[in-house]
């Protein structure tokens, strides 16, 4: 092939007197098709220009524009584009008509490289040239506007088309789906079917993605039936899209059935299924499938690694996290910034902040991006080291890295965890000076920070100042603060807003019920609980996990499924006695049930995090930390108890709850009893 190309380039300098015009066209078409470098392209350009082919065969000019753009020489592409504009006028004056294949080429490069401004200039030329009703030109205009994000203009051209084929319909459906406008995409798909078009594999992929965005399980089953009936399911890309669609609709079981029945699987197939498990809170299933993937003919890639990093982060498993990191290194997988930052974040979430800091420090400073800084700032915050988070934030700016919206969320969260109110207020005030507009999540952080510190009225006043309607995240932060400080009046205001914004969120009802229970308003508690029951909602069950060797052990309240439960229950009871001997008094206010004091104490003993810590004391070597992950916020009594246990047994206990990490050692917690 290379020899053929060199011989062809040599012929560029020859007269070609013996070649007929069609042969020359084929010759240059072949050269352009094989061209992979700017030097070669400029030789071809020069030869075409010298022989006057732009005048008689304008599609060569369009192909040159596309190639210059693809090879990164946008200056030459623009110069040729402008030349095409003048050439069109010249051909009209000379009586040489431009053919309807010229414009699609130029419109294609407008959609991919040059942008909508140039595209509109070409559209104007199309209208003046009389090719506006050509099916190829119309299709190219629809595609160009759609790729440039101008969906309205694309649809306007589409509506005016006299002849529309499957490609045009699919282009519009795909662009609506990619613009996250799934309802319009599906409405257009229905209209397409009404006009007698069945669609093709690409249509099916776009429709499946749109349904996935909506999360509509019933519609997902309809799309699955559609691809089976039309014989598309055998296409690996269609199969992948159906797996992903089911996963996004929360139906992982159906997604797995499709995955298992696929005759051919590629990396995307495995990643779609792994992602489905991780996104739906089934990380152990993801890890099991990942092990199967390593035994298959399909090698994991960096996208696979990103998904599995997320699974390890979800579990909080330090052993699995390190194992995955070692796999990435040993397999010599390409580690870009996204993967490196994700692994840093995984170590943060698995409780190993020191390794995350080490990775950051070993990272080439010139290659660190804003996400690298954000991960570590956030890590310091959730581990109760707010001062280091603020120092890193200052260092980031001194090194010329511009903070973004996520940076400020991380800094404000760090201030929240440590009760650094003044620093948080200053950070929030500095946002606009650093060209970052406060978003709803930043207001939520401020409400959370002020509320936890007891400044409930200031938090409420800030909510009133938000320029748009406050989100459930904002009102949820205020409701939690009311739970912490026992403010029933403000709690009711926050809860009423939340019940309107998200009436199916069980957690808000539970929080309001807890506020009433703390004030001993048992009638109101019963009303809220009946409301939960009548809506068919379920209170999230407490769950704690602890890692022992290569195994992860889980504990539910009153769960007898663990083979160690008898030993663990006995250990918990003995721990309670030992702690009382050195001054521990159970915090009965943490039991939000109208029962006798001795029953409350009994209930406290069997909180899931206490069961997990008792298991750790029994099984984990003395020199190793006991690390527990809980799905809900740790209660005051367990927090109080773990301080005693860490002192009594000389053990380091790390608890990751729904909000942050608590490091207990020597009777002290890293949070400073502020959480």
Low-confidence stretches: 1-5, 7-13, 15-21, 90-98
Radius of gyration: 32 Å
Q: What would the average pLDDT be, to the nearest integer?
A: 86
- Give the termini distance in whole angstroms: 68 Å
Based on secondary structure, the structural category is: mainly alpha
Main β sheet profile: 6 strands, mixed
β-strand number: 6
Strand content: under 5%
What does the overall shape look like?
A: elongated
Compact overview of the structure:
This protein has 675 residues and is mostly helical. The chain is built from 36 helices and six strands.
From the structure above, extract its key features.
about 675 residues; mainly alpha; six-stranded mixed β-sheet; single chain; disordered N terminus; 6 strands; 36 helices
How would you characterize the overall build of this protein?
Strands 2-1-3-4-5-6 form a six-stranded mixed sheet, covered by helices on one side. The longest helix is centred in the first third of the chain and has 21 residues, at 74-94. The radius of gyration is 32 Å and the shape is elongated. By secondary structure, it is mostly helical. The chain has 36 helices and six strands.
Write the SSE topology.
Layout: H1 2-11, H2 21-34, H3 38-50, H4 53-56, H5 59-70, H6 74-94, H7 102-114, H8 116-129, H9 135-147, H10 151-160, H11 166-178, H12 182-194, H13 201-214, H14 217-229, H15 236-248, H16 252-261, H17 267-279, H18 283-294, H19 302-315, H20 318-330, H21 337-349, H22 353-362, H23 370-382, H24 386-398, H25 405-418, H26 421-430, H27 440-452, H28 456-465, H29 472-485, H30 488-501, H31 506-518, H32 522-534, E1 543-548, E2 551-556, H33 565-581, H34 597-605, H35 608-619, E3 626-630, H36 636-649, E4 653-656, E5 661-665, E6 668-669
Parallel strand pairs: 3-4
Antiparallel strand pairs: 1-2, 1-3, 4-5, 5-6
Helix pairs in contact: 3-5, 5-6, 5-7, 7-8, 7-9, 8-9, 9-10, 9-11, 10-11, 11-12, 11-13, 12-13, 13-14, 13-15, 14-15, 15-16, 15-17, 16-17, 17-18, 17-19, 18-19, 19-20, 19-21, 21-22, 21-23, 22-23, 23-24, 23-25, 24-25, 25-26, 25-27, 26-27, 27-28, 27-29, 28-29, 29-30, 29-31, 30-31, 31-32, 33-35, ...
